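FW: tagging you since you asked about this chain on Friday. Here's the raw sequence from the shared folder, copied in full. Didn't touch anything.
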Amino acid sequence: MDFRILDLVATVVECCEERCSPGPGHLPAETVRVLSTLRRFLREGTPWRSLTASAGEASGSTLRRALARWARGGVLARVHAMLRGDPTLILDSCSVRAKRAGELAGPNPTDCGKKGTKYHVAVTGDGVRVACVVATTANVNDTLVFERLFLAAFAVMARIATVFADKGYDAEHHRELCRSFGAEPHIHKRRQPGGSGLGKRRWPVVNADCTLPKPAD
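HL: got it, structure written out here
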């Protein structure tokens, strides 16, 4: 993400947040530093305790306090409304062959059982990637990562209106999870004829700077 965009989002967050005048002691961390830390946490999955404060980032404990404060004040929902992000969420996965195998490689059922690694990604309707499970073996069922992907995306988007996913994510408790967050699930069911509309429209991922790591060798 370009620093100018991150700075813009920080400005919007500060406009939406009602903060009291700082008291004695250390000044609160700049919002842009907190957002930079959140970006690293979501991209790399770095543990909270491993996030240390630096010139450009805040500590993990500072990030957790900020997220809790924003949640209590409904800040993320207001930020989302101001930025007018697309409330549509699309979940999918892709497999990459791992020629020399490795711990994160497994038999790919769509590639004659050859060793592969699978990436699970969630994007918005306008193509912005909001969550990912970096890597699992190629034979891991998509249903096992649905909840983790959805909740990670919700933490970023604040509001999800519609969820699209293919039959690989078919499970009734996934639909119930979506509805509990106010989202309408459109998850194609197994052993059902076509006609859901899934596959007729493509949602390309536009934030190409958020590169995924190479598959396990």
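FW: Strands lie at 88-97, 106-107, 115-124, 129-137, 162-165, 184-187.
HL: agreed, and The chain has six helices and six strands.
FW: great, closing this out.
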